Amino acid sequence: MEQADTGDLLLFKCKNFGAFITRSVTWSEYDHVAMILKFESTANEIYLVEATGNTGVALNKWSTLRKHIGTNKFYRKCVYRHLDLVRGQEVMEKLECFLQQAVGLEYGLSVRDIAMRRTTKTRCSMMTSKN
Q1: Residue 3 falls within a domain, yes or no?
Q2: Is the pTM of this model over 0.70?
Q3: Residue 53's domain spans which residues?
Q4: Regarding beta strands 32-37 and 47-52, do their DSSP bridges make them parallel or antiparallel, or are they unpaired?
Q5: Among 25, 24, 5, which residue's Cα sits nearest to residue 87?
Q6: In a domain, 87, yes or no
Q7: How many domains does the chain have?
């Protein structure tokens, strides 16, 4: 709780078959990721932004999620990765803009989506870009 900072990551290893397939295809030990968010207004709580098939992109409390980590639980393993980044005003504004656009979206990824791999500029990226 003390080390975690906005932008840091949690990597998860789930125990279901779909997660096994994801790890196999990606050659990874992990099949799920969440980004940590810390807010000054709630200093004793950490929030996670993550995308799942059930809820889409959502904010969840760490205190709620951590109950589901451990042997014979949904998440068999969870590791913390610190992002070495200066979290200045511009970075935080871009993150806030991204979150405003992403939270609440449905989760969806198909083979077609992966094959097409199109990138589009969002309104926020155009507003905050200094290129």
Answers
A1: no
A2: yes
A3: 9-128
A4: antiparallel
A5: 5
A6: yes
A7: 1
